[in-house]
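hey m, so remember when u said the tokens were messed up on ur end? i reran from scratch. heres the input so u can diff it against urs
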Amino acid sequence: MKRVDRRRSERRQRALLVVGLSFALGALAAIALSWRLVESEPPPALAMSPTEAEIAALEAEAIHDEVPSAPVLERPLVAPAATTGSNGGDGPDVETLRRRDLEIPVEDVDDDDLRDTFADARGGGRSHEAIDIMAPRGTRVVAVEGGSIAKLFNSEQGGLTIYQFDPTGTYTYYYAHLDRYAAGLKEGQTVKRGDVIGSVGSTGNAAEDAPHLHFAIFRLTPERQWWKGTPINPYLVLR
């Protein structure tokens, strides 16, 4: 009888050992699987401000195709989500800027000489979002009002360009395809209305036989990034 009880006890102990080992192995397998899943997940991307190279890439994507027989220029460097808003309408931004009586940015050009090319169609279904002010090469380009030089940028599409903040840091004035900058012009410099900041040219993708200034205005985002904003029709402002 004692022998039978001892065998039963040994079988019970072996069964408990097998069950215990099964649970242990299962737990280890689950841990290993979880570890593999964790290791396979890519690390989160870091949010970074765009470099000039990245901005140039954005510009290249946003540019319309060049038409050799006419001045063909890029729109301001703006993120795609920011290219809606005023769109040339007679809205509050236009009225605000009209009251400032901005200077026409090219010397010897009258407001009657201006043409509204803001909504002109461009490649990829985009609109121009700027005006082209025709003038002889070398004609002086002036600041439309006081403010500061936010960025001097040389790109394949826009050539020599200037981004100027207005005095309140609300708007950017964009001057593109310059032949040259004014002597000594630098980023961060304060300028006054009528100060010479450059000259008309055809750098970038502008047609050599049609020098002009590509002029744009856009409202800055709250981050006040010089390359990003909502386009406003300069023709409505200057006229």
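this time it looks ok to me. The longest strand covers residues 171-181. if urs says something different then somethings off w ur setup not the seq
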